[in-house]
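#lab-general

N.A. 3:47 PM
ok so I finally got the sequence cleaned up, no stray characters, all 542 residues accounted for. can someone with queue access submit it? mine expired

B.Y. 3:52 PM
send it over

N.A. 3:53 PM
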Amino acid sequence: MKSLQQKLIVFVVLPVAVILGSIGIAGFFYIRDGLSNRWQEIAVLQMERAAQRLEIRLHNPVNLIESFARAGREPAAVEIQGWLLKELQRQDGVDQVRLTWRGSEKVRGRVVKAASPIYFYPEQTDALGLRSDLLDDAGQPVGRIEVQVKFDSLMQDLLVSGWMQTNNACLLDDQGNYLSHVDSREKGRTRLRDKQDPVRLAVIRGIKEKPSGIISERSQVIGFYRLKSTPLAIVLHAPGKQIISPALHFGLVYPLAGILSLFLILLFIRTGVRPIVVSIRKISQKATQVAQGNYGDPLPARSQDEIGQLTRTFNDMVTGLKERDFVTTTFGRYVDPEIARILLQRPEATRLGGEKREVVVLFADIRGFTPLAEGLSPEATIHLLNRFFSEMIEVIQQHHGIIVDFLGDGIVAFFDPLGEPLHHTMRQALRCSLEMQQAMDKVNEPDGKIVVPSISIGIGLHAGEVVVGNIGSEKRAQYGIIGSAVNLASRIQNQAQGGEVVISPSIYRHVHPDLLVKREFETQLKGIQEPITLYAIQNLVE
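B.Y. 4:20 PM
back already:
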């Protein structure tokens, strides 16, 4: 496969076809299962609500019968019971009310309560029967009330939900016999399937064993819900295809869409490869020039697609390389990149010369290094300095310090406020100095390579006005600082003992409330006529 077009066909079209096929199969089963689970959840919820309405409807006659029994010993028992019988007959769906006494009506006054109702199915009627015996004090029946409730009225509680009507809801007894159905075409039907049908037997067994459930087979899904106080069960049965019809539709449409997508991909590969190849070839040629140090002009990015984005990204990379080279040439390798970007936004950073402003100058030097180095081999001396500078550079960069130079065994750096208040920069320089002293513990840890003695450093800090900018010529310039404040910081560093951070009064005045001073001393510095008070800092209180 020498051509990009062939590679794209093999490595793009075939994997896309496999992925689309996998997604289609997984999507079909996911949608199918989701639709089935959702139907089951809705079915149980709808049947539960319908069952509650049915039980309320059937409970009203029971309440009236119980009231009839309790009224037996009232002074106006005949009038009250007569009114209750009429009220019972007026109940929605009640088709017939029948009251019988054992003997004469004289036993009416002996009635104290009604027995629990017994449900039955009257012959040659489309109704549910409810029978309750009227009991005396001894619990003996003295009368009976029978009520018949039309199934049509009970079905109204199912017809309230159009969803249940769509999914073929019906009422069954505990033997799996049809009592009523929302579909008038099913009115003459008497059984749920054949007598020995496995599904019918599973539904009857489910109604007897648990209050609700779902039974699925290949072509149909059946849900049932048993009423708590009545030998009735609500049953829903819907064709499986009806439930998962969106999944079946997806299964038909998705393959066609996949085939069309693959055809469009092939067409794109044939018509779109040539411009891509041309653009990639230009980027490759430009990369060769950049590798030789010839940055040249940026490549034109004429499109907004991935190739255009690649071209712009390549141009950004080349710009970044140019900027990094400039930063390395101007600021050296030891300036934090974030600080370098901020400095490059200033006009003085890109031209010779500079400007005056207040900064914090840091000098750090290894104590007693000259006699120490005389007793070490050249390899050990270089090894010791490299470990020292590595740790110090990392700490200074973390605190956004700008390293100016390495003076033998010492470091010169400064902290530029960059528009921020100077006292914030002073605190930053103090934190950096204290962490540099802490980092000496790591410098003095044995590394198992070359055995070297432990060392300590003295650090001096001073804040003052200096000239900040590029010092040198057009061919070779370095970003740095000059001024009397630099010299004063060097002389303050000479007063620091090993492990000490010594600061000048210009810093102490701004941050002294937050300082823990180890020692305060007065000394005469070279180039300063009057003695100056210096402060060795133990810690900075945050």
